[in-house]
């Protein structure tokens, strides 16, 4: 009888590319990248069955730093590309990564409808309350009174509340993590990947270059005092009344994901071309 080779157990290293990450010293995105690779090792999906999609911004460099398939799209359109990919290739594990500017400003409308459609993918947003790559403009999640050279005295505009918006729009999994806890963040990302439907994970990822005061976030971040709920009304009350630093899974819904068709790989290029004939 032939020996049967045991299945290969993948580690976080199997999901890392040979490219060295380039972010500012102290950026929280280094830890987020580590959490993503650790999460993928937890779910044991082969790298060639994973696609990481991103838009534009510091956080959107992540696809290049993994050994998975990657797609670096245009500003604010990562969810549109990721949604189309998952619907066309439902057998793939799709992660979409971005920042608060990319996801909530120019990509805000895509965010709402991705939550509503509930396609089975995981959306990871590294939120640092600032546009870091373009040198420190206020973002949708910036505090209205944050005083800086580009917005003296602050913008005076109410901050966008992504977790509330995600819940109200229909996301099936809502969580908040902190880059300063890479192992805990990896657990949350892995849970989001496993949960059916659209999983939204906000990761507080400090930008110590343009928001040096965010070094203090490690003092504020704390585990949520209650566990996740499947009641959206209860989840809404928790999210609306928290201090913005409750870390953990806040909501796990049971909505059925957007339906997809089984993949038929028997078609040929000629078959595909006939679909576009006029």
Please describe what this structure looks like.
This protein has 278 residues and is an alpha/beta fold. Helices cover 30% and strands 15% of the residues. It has helices at residues 29-43, 78-88, 100-106, 108-117, 162-169, 182-194, 217-220, 232-241, 269-274; strands at 50-54, 69-72, 93-99, 122-127, 173-178, 199-204, 222-223, 246-252. An eight-stranded mixed β-sheet has the order 2-1-3-4-6-5-8-7, sandwiched between helices. β7, α8 and β8 form a beta-alpha-beta unit. The chain is globular and about 60 Å long. The model has no long low-confidence stretch (mean pLDDT 92).
Main sheet overview: 8 strands, mixed
SS element count, helices: 9
Shape: globular
Strand content: 15-25%
Distance between the termini: 57 Å
Task: Summarize the SSE layout with pairings.
Layout: H1 29-43, E1 50-54, E2 69-72, H2 78-88, E3 93-99, H3 100-106, H4 108-117, E4 122-127, H5 162-169, E5 173-178, H6 182-194, E6 199-204, H7 217-220, E7 222-223, H8 232-241, E8 246-252, H9 269-274
Parallel strand pairs: 1-2, 1-3, 3-4, 4-6, 5-6, 7-8
Antiparallel strand pairs: 5-8
Helix pairs in contact: 1-6, 3-4, 4-5, 5-8
What is the gist of this entry?
The protein is α/β, with parallel strands linked by helices and 278 residues long.
């Amino acid at each position: 009888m032939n020996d049967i080779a045991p299945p290969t157990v993948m580690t976080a290293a199997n999901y890392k590319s040979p490219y060295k990450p380039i972010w500012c010293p102290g950026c929280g995105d280094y830890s987020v990248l580590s959490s993503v690779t650790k999460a993928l090792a937890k779910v044991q999906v082969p790298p060639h069955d994973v696609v990481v999609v991103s838009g534009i911004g510091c956080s959107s460099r992540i696809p290049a730093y993994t050994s998975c398939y990657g797609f670096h799209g245009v500003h604010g359109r990562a969810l549109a590309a990721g949604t189309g990919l998952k619907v066309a290739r439902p057998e793939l594990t799709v992660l979409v990564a971005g920042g608060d500017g990319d996801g909530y400003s120019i990509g805000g409308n895509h965010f709402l409808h991705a939550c509503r459609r509930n396609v089975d993918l995981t959306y990871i947003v590294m939120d640092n309350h600032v546009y870091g790559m373009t040198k420190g403009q206020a973002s949708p999640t910036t505090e209205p009174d944050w005083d800086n050279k580009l917005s003296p005295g602050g913008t005076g505009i109410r901050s966008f509340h992504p977790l509330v918006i995600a819940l109200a729009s229909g996301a099936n999994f809502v969580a908040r993590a902190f880059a300063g806890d890479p192992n805990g963040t990896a657990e949350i990302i892995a849970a989001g990947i496993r949960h059916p439907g659209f999983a939204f994970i906000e990761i507080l990822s400090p930008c110590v270059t343009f928001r040096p005061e965010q070094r203090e976030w490690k003092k504020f971040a704390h585990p949520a005092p209650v566990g996740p709920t499947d009641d959206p009304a209860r989840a809404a009350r928790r999210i609306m009344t928290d201090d913005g630093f409750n870390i953990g899974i806040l909501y796990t819904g049971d909505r059925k994901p957007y339906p997809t068709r089984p993949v038929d790989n028997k078609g040929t290029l000629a078959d595909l071309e006939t679909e576009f004939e006029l």
